[in-house]
Design brief:
7-stranded parallel sheet, 47% helix, 7 strands, globular
């Protein structure tokens, strides 16, 4: 399928590895020029060079913490007037409700709600003026199926979902869509870290811990960054212009939700 976005410009956050890189690569494969962001300059530079060499698109990089005011300023200056925005940030640590205080919630909100809101607030007016734009927020399957030990993430990402629910309907008349992708478990560094932690806690091998977690997923495997990126690229396409304000679960059927 020709997605019709060749020559567009995209800002993709937290995109040196994992799901963010999967999204960046899928967009690059469609001929989209990129501005990539991540905290680690070395990994970010390596990703940018690989995408340039493979797809022949322009790739600029901004190594910074996008959850800070200064980081947001830097990525927005580099991005200029992008047609596409993909927001992404790692989730806060797991724990018990009794572990967290106000500062823990503020940090979670800054990373997983207020940063995407700030980037959208800055870029949506230009998209509306130009009559075309795509925003995809990488959130979590926990938005629709909350995970008990991820209370910080559940709370912050639910707040972002509420913001998008209203805002997406307000910008849709201008040819701008906002949608959320809700990943379940994917084969990323995060999954490896969780499997290692589970193996240590249960006194099993990492392979056994991985197999046990995969057995809880109807697809019986973890998702891949490539297939996640393909879903992102479609939501950024010309063909997805009638998809607005949606929350797409990409979890291999792990959450048994019908509506």
């Amino acid at each position: 399928m020709e997605l019709g976005i060749s020559g567009k410009r995209a800002l993709v956050c937290a995109s040196s590895k994992g799901l963010g890189r999967g999204c960046a690569e899928a967009l690059a494969a469609e001929g989209v020029d990129l501005v990539l962001n991540a905290r680690g300059a070395e990994a970010l530079g390596a990703t940018a060079e690989a995408l340039r060499a493979t797809y022949g698109v322009s790739v600029e990089t901004v190594a910074c913490d996008v959850t800070t005011t200064d980081g947001q300023r830097r990525v927005l200056e580099a991005a200029g007037a992008p047609d596409i925005l993909v927001t992404n940030a790692g989730g806060p640590p797991p724990g018990l409700w009794s572990d967290w205080d106000r500062e823990d919630f503020i940090a979670a909100l800054d990373a997983n709600m207020l940063t995407p809101v700030a980037l959208m607030t800055a870029l949506l007016p230009g998209m509306c003026d130009r009559g075309w734009g795509r925003v995809v927020n990488i959130t979590s399957a926990s938005v629709r199926a909350p995970i008990p030990q991820l209370g910080l993430s559940n709370s912050a990402r639910a707040g972002l979902t509420g913001f998008v629910a209203g805002t997406s309907r307000q910008v849709a008349p201008f040819g701008v869509t906002i949608n959320n992708l809700l990943p379940g478990i994917h084969a990323t560094d995060r999954a490896v870290a969780l499997d290692n932690g589970k193996a240590e806690a249960e006194g099993t091998s990492v392979a056994e811990a991985t197999a046990n977690r995969q057995a809880t997923i109807p697809a019986r495997r973890y998702g891949t960054p490539a297939e996640f990126g393909a879903a992102c690229a479609f939501l950024c396409s010309q063909q997805a212009g009638f998809v607005a304000g949606q929350n797409w679960m990409i979890d291999g059927g792990a959450a048994n939700i019908t509506v």
